[in-house]
Amino acid sequence: MAPKARTTAKATTKTTTRARSEERRAEILRAALEVIAERGYRGASLGAVAERVGLTQQGLLHYFPTKDALLVAVLEARDQWDAVPTKEIRLDLLGSLVEYNTMRPGIIQTFSALLGESVTDGHPAREYFTERYGSVREKFAAVLRVEYGDRLPGGLTPEAAAPLLVAVMDGLQYQWLLDPDSVDMVGAFRDFLGLLGDGGADTNGGSGSGE
Question: Whole-model pTM above 0.85?
Answer without folding.
Answer: no
